[in-house]
């Protein structure tokens, strides 16, 4: 069915100087044939193909390790920046020996001190399916490398799902999906671990929420939480925004769907194999300060053990979430869901005791939805690429015999680069919330195109003296394109209160 109030797609090359300049490398700004319709150059097709191409480049970047670097040398996988957990855990967690995750313990000589697999249940299932698809026996002389290839193929599908979902969440901004498809950090970190599974499910949940299907969105969010812990954080922004808009039924459907889906996946493992199931949670709690975090800088600079880091990190997350709640309830206009989602997940990462290189994958789609401006996105990505190179050079120095690589001081600067890059993007998004006229997504007259039942809703509760929804101005000044003033077309549709009829 056609959209009740159709309007032309927003083309970044017409609004974003960086996008316009970059488009010259591929023939100039997007033309009239690249529309949302079913043509061969429809954005979703183009972006899906670009995502596959960028992912393939990332696989090629890991080529130096595929031959021997993962196993025959202590440092080659670091000096070539091609490290991946996947082939190591194929052997180290018993998949090569047919060990069933959670139900059977890992042989002591393989486990590095862990008795069971230290991943959530849905990720464990993903790993097991890849192991079943990996050929065994004399016909496969390099099973660990083959296991990596099988996982890479499955993770590529996840990357395409992510890019397509971001393309479809904001109906009139499909080309923002290019930010995801062309992200340098996506190519570099996609096959380090299995994070893309949770990210794909999270993006699918956001797509369903944007289509006013909160129950299905909640189910997908629960499945994402069964693959990685961070997606459950998104229920916080949904709760706060539903509070401000008075859409409690939508929140309850989403929360109920999330809890039900999580239980449906976890109970079949929790009940018969409680100790194996709990390993992920005990490992996360007992894990010491690790690479990439601000806590590691403090520990290295002070030579302190930081035994209470779990308490410190939890306190910072609670305080940060309280501040985000106040911001959401007191902002001039209700913030968009993607803005609060990025802030909450970024807060969790910035305060965590480990900030692994692949954690950037959690933020890439949220950044594309929250702040679709190429300049800010590339500044942030630059810090992440710098850290990606820095951590491997630091590990090369730690594991090599000739002390070649990055010293601790240089590695600390690399940590600062990606921490400050993430903090910079948070600051820009907070500014957009406080000054909604500078929000790129709202410059075409939209409210929250990814907000589902929240899109166009009036305020029911705020911390402001006058709880009203400010009218959309007749024009916005786009400060990212040399001060050009953009006309504001007709605003998008507004759903009636609790319009979730498609769920019943």
Describe the structure in your own words:
This protein has 504 residues and is an all-alpha fold. It has one domain. It is built from 21 helices and two strands. It has helices spanning 12-15, 17-23, 43-61, 63-69, 76-79, 85-92, 121-133, 143-169, 177-181, 184-189, 195-210, 214-225, 235-245, 248-270, 274-286, 294-302, 309-330, 337-351, 360-370, 374-399, 408-434, and strands at residues 475-477, 485-487. Strand 1 and strand 2 (485-487) form a beta hairpin. 48% of the residues are buried. Residues 1-6 and 470-504 have low confidence and may be disordered.
The number of domains is 1
- Characterize the quaternary organization of these chains: single chain
Total helical segments: 21
**What is the rounded distance between the termini?**
19 Å
What kind of sheet is the major sheet?
2 strands, antiparallel
Strand runs, count: 2
Question: What attributes characterize this protein structure?
Answer:
504 residues, disordered C terminus, disordered N terminus
Short overview:
GO terms for molecular function: hexosyltransferase activity. This protein has 504 residues and is mainly alpha-helical.
Topology:
Layout: H1 12-15, H2 17-23, H3 43-61, H4 63-69, H5 76-79, H6 85-92, H7 121-133, H8 143-169, H9 177-181, H10 184-189, H11 195-210, H12 214-225, H13 235-245, H14 248-270, H15 274-286, H16 294-302, H17 309-330, H18 337-351, H19 360-370, H20 374-399, H21 408-434, E1 475-477, E2 485-487
Antiparallel strand pairs: 1-2
Helix pairs in contact: 3-8, 6-8, 7-8, 8-11, 11-12, 12-14, 13-14, 13-17, 13-18, 16-21, 17-18, 18-19, 18-21, 20-21
Transmembrane segments: 42-60, 146-166, 178-209, 215-243, 250-271, 311-330, 337-357, 377-396, 408-430
Subcellular location: Cell membrane
GO molecular function: hexosyltransferase activity
């Amino acid at each position: 069915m056609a959209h009740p109030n159709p309007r032309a797609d927003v083309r970044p090359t017409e609004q974003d100087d960086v996008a316009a300049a970059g488009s010259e490398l591929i023939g100039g700004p997007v033309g009239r044939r690249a529309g949302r319709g079913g043509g061969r150059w429809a954005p979703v097709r183009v972006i899906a193909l670009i995502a596959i191409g960028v992912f393939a480049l990332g696989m090629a970047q890991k080529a130096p390790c595929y031959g021997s670097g993962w196993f025959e040398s202590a440092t080659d996988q670091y000096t070539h920046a091609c490290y991946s957990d996947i082939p190591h855990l194929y052997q180290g967690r018993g998949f090569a020996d047919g060990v069933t995750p959670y139900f059977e313990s890992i042989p002591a000589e393989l486990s590095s001190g862990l008795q069971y697999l230290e991943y959530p249940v849905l990720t464990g299932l993903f790993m097991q399916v890849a192991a079943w698809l990996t050929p065994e026996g004399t016909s496969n002389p390099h099973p660990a490398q083959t296991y990596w290839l099988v996982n890479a193929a499955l993770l590529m599908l996840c990357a395409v799902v992510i890019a397509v979902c971001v393309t479809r969440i904001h109906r009139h901004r499909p080309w923002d999906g290019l930010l995801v498809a062309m992200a340098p950090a996506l190519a570099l970190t996609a096959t380090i671990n299995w994070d893309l599974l949770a990210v794909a499910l999270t993006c699918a949940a956001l797509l369903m929420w944007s289509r006013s299907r909160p129950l299905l969105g909640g189910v997908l969010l629960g499945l994402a939480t069964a693959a990685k812990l961070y997606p459950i954080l998104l229920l916080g922004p949904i709760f706060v925004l539903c509070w401000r808009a008075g859409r409690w039924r939508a929140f309850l459907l989403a929360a109920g769907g999330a809890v039900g889906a999580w239980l449906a996946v976890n109970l079949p493992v929790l009940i018969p194999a409680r100790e194996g199931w709990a390993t992920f949670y005990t490992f996360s709690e007992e894990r010491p300060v690790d690479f990439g975090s601000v806590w590691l800088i403090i520990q290295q600079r002070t030579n302190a053990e930081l035994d209470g880091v779990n308490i410190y990190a939890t306190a910072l997350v609670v305080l940060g979430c309280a501040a985000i709640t106040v911001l959401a309830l007191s902002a001039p206009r209700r913030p968009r869901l993607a803005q609060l989602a990025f802030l909450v997940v970024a807060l969790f990462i910035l305060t965590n005791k480990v900030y692994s290189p692949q954690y950037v994958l959690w933020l890439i789609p949220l950044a594309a939805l929250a702040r679709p401006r190429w300049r800010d996105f590339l500044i942030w990505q630059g810090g992440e690429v710098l850290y990606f190179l820095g951590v491997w050079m630091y590990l090369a120095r730690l594991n090599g015999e000739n002390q070649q690589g990055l010293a601790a001081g240089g590695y600390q600067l690399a940590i600062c680069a990606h921490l400050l890059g993430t903090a910079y993007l948070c600051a820009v998004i907070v500014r957009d919330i406080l000054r909604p006229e500078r929000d790129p997504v709202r410059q075409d007259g939209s409210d929250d195109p990814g907000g589902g039942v929240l899109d166009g809703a009036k305020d029911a509760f705020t911390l402001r003296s006058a709880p009203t929804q400010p009218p959309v101005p007749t024009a916005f000044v786009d400060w990212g394109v040399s001060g050009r003033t953009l006309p504001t077309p007709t605003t998008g549709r507004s759903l009636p209160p609790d319009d979730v009829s498609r769920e019943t």
